Amino acid sequence: MDDYVKVSVVIPSYNREKTIQACLLSVINQSYPPFEIIVVDDGSTDNTILKIKELGDQRIRILKQQHKGAQAARNYGIRGARGDYIAFLDSDDEWLPDKLKIQVQYLEGRQDIVVYCDCYEVNRRKGYVRKRITKGGNGNVYKEMLMNSGPTFLGMLCSKKALIDIGLLDENVPAHQEWETAIRLSIDNEFVHICEPLCKWNWHEGETISKDKTRGIKGYNYIVEKHKWQILKQHGLQGLHK
Predict the structure, then answer these.
(1) Which end of the chain has fewer CB atoms < 10 Å from its terminal CB, N or C?
(2) pTM score, whole prediction
(3) Category of 134 on φ-ψ map: left (φ > 0), alpha (ψ -120 to 50) or beta
(4) CA 190, chain centre distance (Å)
(5) How is 136-147 classified by DSSP, letter by letter?
């Protein structure tokens, strides 16, 4: 395919032996094939790596690091990526089959576009699936992104160049890491919002940042403090208080 867009999928993983195969199969079975699938193992002590190798897909690359957290793992994957574009997925979540096919149509060969989508929130313990609407908008959305938590990592696709240009991901953000990333990406990149769920955000019994409310508050405060002068400039005191 002369117009084939090389997408590197970056998946941080830590002790995900129960979910990693379903995650990877949702990437392997994409109707638009990814160029490579990079799993960054963040010092797992269970059978995560064994489960990955059982799938036997030649596009999967396993990078290993000591336990440093998801952001550091994502940065390791970005730096090692050989594709021109990066798509993120967490090791306990999944994509719908046409996720990449739909998203790459909006790139138009440009390096300054971030494509993101909605997702399904799946809670098997409580027995519900609901559509999760992503806030943000289209075009130059920096002002809006300062006030909204923005795209999820599992729904985001952008160029490797754009991530390098912002100095990669902030590894000190305790939570809401995709929001902080989206804020900085929105300074020099146009955003495209696909108002359609193309992935599944799975709630399960294991440990996740989303369940840690104290960490969530710390992450929110970190981001507001980091970007407060721009929030004041764009939205005034009322925006900062909000």
Answers:
(1) N
(2) 0.93
(3) beta
(4) 17
(5) --SBS-HHHHTT
